[in-house]
TrEMBL record:
Gene3D superfamilies, alphabetized: Glycosyl hydrolase domain, family 43
Upper taxonomic lineage: Eukaryota, Fungi, Dikarya, Ascomycota, Pezizomycotina
Signal peptide: 1-16
Annotated protein name in UniProt: Alpha-L-arabinofuranosidase
Compositionally biased tracts (Low complexity): 18-27
SUPFAM superfamilies, per the entry: Arabinanase/levansucrase/invertase
Source organism of the structure: Schizothecium vesticola
Length: 347
């Protein structure tokens, strides 16, 4: 059977919210590169590069990611990389952000965005809390400020529901009036809190549960939310499948507050999973794990806190993958690498 794969044009998103037209299953198809970005062979002895956030500005890609190694409390830190060609991305210098005001200690899973009212770049990350740092210049790795937390302590609703999970993967997106902070707990819950655009980053409300699933692996972590047209949003969440491999599910909504309607949210019809990815040569990974859609900005379409992505063009998704032959042992010592998915529109 020949499927027509949606490219997530605004009309497609609206149609998907009420179910795909007969004979046209909503779905995605991708092509993947091999690994493009890995650790440097230096004194850091980094095992894996993980959790990328990425924005393209006037042809330059700015990537922030976690560095992981099996070193206890010193196992995670942040790195910044920029380049103009993915084929040469692994040659780019790594700027370790523990040398900036961000400092040493546990920092992981970054998200970068431009907050236009403040004229500042924000880097959101986890440090045992939900934290942020700011910088007027995205390409100045020394310019990041000391971390500040959104909360005085872990919110009560997270403590009550987290079970054996971890509070992880913070993500901020704003609309015309509010900024919203999403997070996960590796236990089947997606949390959201908010503050006014004028008060951000202060004043975050107590989180509420926006989505939940009795199967903790169905709503696991790495949530990201984008505006995909006026009054339309797309949510992605990483899940762990029945084969114990990681993949992404997707939903859409007319509001950041939801409710969220399934778009491509199953192992059979995922947003991105090994079964809808064509690899260059031998498949190098069976997991499509923590990643981000590339946000593209120019002088004509500058970046801001709304996190717009252009769905009239094929999406590109920078993700972490793992050689299945090396998928064993301590999680922090696993050799994750970054690779690039490009959406195939038409099949």
């Amino acid at each position: 059977m020949k499927f027509t794969f949606l490219n997530l044009a605004a009309a497609g998103l609206v149609a998907a919210a009420s179910g795909p037209p007969a004979g046209r299953p909503a779905g995605f198809k991708w092509k993947s590169t091999g690994p493009l970005i890995g650790p440097k062979d230096d004194e850091r002895k980094t095992a894996g590069i993980k959790d990328p956030t990425v924005i393209e500005i006037n042809g330059t890609y700015h990537v922030f990611a976690s560095t992981a190694r099996d070193q206890g409390n010193d196992s995670y830190s942040l790195v910044y990389i920029n380049f103009t060609d993915f084929d040469k991305a692994n040659e780019a210098p790594h700027h370790y952000l523990d040398q900036s005001g961000i400092g040493k200690g546990y920092r992981a899973a970054p998200e970068v965005f431009w907050h236009a009212p403040h004229k500042l770049w924000y880097l959101i990350f986890q440090n045992g809390n939900a934290a942020y740092s700011t910088n007027p210049k995205i390409d100045d790795p020394a310019g990041w400020t000391a971390p500040k937390n959104f909360y005085a302590a872990k919110p009560a609703i997270v403590t009550e529901n987290i079970g054996a999970g971890y509070w992880v993967d913070m993500w901020v997106i704003c609309d015309a009036t509010h900024c919203h902070l999403f997070s996960s707990d590796d236990n089947g819950h997606l949390y959201r809190s908010e503050t006014t655009l004028a008060d951000f980053p202060a004043g975050m409300s107590d989180p509420v549960i926006d989505l939940e699933d009795a199967n903790r692996y169905a709503l696991f972590e790495a949530a990201c939310v984008y505006r995909v047209g006026e009054g339309r949003y797309m949510l992605l969440i990483e899940a762990i499948g029945t084969d114990e491999k990681r993949y992404f599910r997707s939903w859409t909504s007319a509001s950041i507050r939801g409710p969220w309607t399934a778009l491509a949210d199953s192992e059979e019809n995922p947003f991105a999973r090994a079964n809808n990815v064509e690899f260059e040569g031998t498949p190098w990974t069976k997991s499509i794990s923590h990643g981000e859609v590339i946000r593209v900005h120019t002088a004509e379409k500058p970046a801001d806190q709304n996190l717009d992505i252009d769905t009239s063009k094929p999406l590109r998704f920078l993700y972490q993958g793992l050689d299945p032959e090396k998928d064993s042992g301590s999680y922090n010592a696993l050799p994750w690498r970054l690779a690039l998915l490009t959406q195939v529109t038409g099949a």
